[in-house]
Design goal:
Blueprint: E1 2-3, E2 9-13, E3 18-22, E4 28-32, E5 54-59, E6 65-69, E7 74-78, E8 84-88, E9 110-115, E10 121-125, E11 130-134, E12 140-144, E13 169-172, E14 178-182, E15 187-191, E16 197-201, E17 223-228, E18 234-238, E19 243-247
Antiparallel strand pairs: 1-2, 2-3, 3-4, 5-6, 6-7, 7-8, 9-10, 10-11, 11-12, 13-14, 14-15, 15-16, 17-18, 18-19
Domain Teneurin NHL: 40-90, 146-203
Protein name: Teneurin NHL domain-containing protein
């Protein structure tokens, strides 16, 4: 789920192929998707368009909605007039396009989305084992992970030389550091503002342990989506353990 600046909640109802909104009065509406799986509607009303198992949504400060349209291998955008377009992806799952227009790039299983303070969109390109960035000119690049190569390596060096394994989650803190739910590596990773990567939670062994101690000594089980509060505390879905865990700013889980 995602909130806009007014406190309205947006979430994807993936099996119903819709994105829905719950306003601050508790009233629910559909903002994208007609309920039928497929791909259609670009250039028209988002509520008349087809989505295909949308997995995540993000709302920017202007009120534009970005949707991980998973099975369409696209990221869609709904503007403030309710018009939908394709923001990234050709519709063919795969990896290509870095350094060019995001709409000409291939992506595969996009998941959580977030945005930096400059307005660039970041997303987990999960099946490609990377985190990608779309800048304000619409150019796509990889900022973490080795494309099409899974693994668990690279801490202490450049994030673009590291290996991730099916990452699902991305979120920024107020300082501009990016956190990644590195799903199959059972870790939370961090890319600092210099582009270097480290592990902030998880030993790499699947399990449930460590509450009350250092997050780097804890075991996790499929950490997925996450968020960071204004104080720098991280909250993440420990999916395999069916719980939400918190990493305090001092590193305690």
């Amino acid at each position: 789920p995602a909130f806009d600046k007014d406190g309205n909640l947006f979430f994807t109802e993936q099996g119903a192929h819709r994105v829905r909104k719950i306003d601050t009065n508790g009233v629910i509406t559909t903002v994208a998707g007609n309920g039928t799986a497929g791909y259609s509607g670009d250039g028209g009303a988002a509520t008349s368009a087809q989505l295909n198992y949308p997995r995540a949504a993000y709302v920017d400060t202007a009120g534009n909605i970005y949707i991980s349209d998973r099975s369409n291998a696209r990221i869609r955008k709904v503007d403030t007039n309710g018009i939908i377009t394709t923001f990234a992806g050709t519709g063919e799952a795969g990896y290509s396009g870095d350094g060019g227009a995001a709409t000409s790039a291939k992506i595969s299983f996009s998941y959580q989305l977030t945005m930096d303070s400059q307005g660039s969109l970041y997303f987990a390109d999960s099946n490609n084992h990377i985190i990608r960035k779309i800048d304000t000119n619409g150019i796509i690049t990889t900022i973490a992970g080795t494309p099409e190569t899974s693994g668990n390596s690279g801490d202490g060096g450049a994030a673009t030389s590291a290996k991730l394994n099916g990452p699902l989650g991305v979120a920024f803190d107020t300082g501009g550091n990016l956190y990644i739910g590195d799903y199959y590596n059972e870790k939370i990773r961090k890319v600092d503002t210099s582009g270097n990567i480290s592990t902030v939670a998880g030993t790499g062994t699947r399990g449930y342990s460590g509450d009350g101690g250092l997050a780097t000594a804890a075991t996790l089980y499929y950490p997925s989506v996450l968020t960071v509060d204004k104080s720098g505390n991280i909250y993440f879905c420990d999916s395999g353990n069916e719980g939400i865990r918190k990493i305090w700013k001092n590193g305690i889980i």
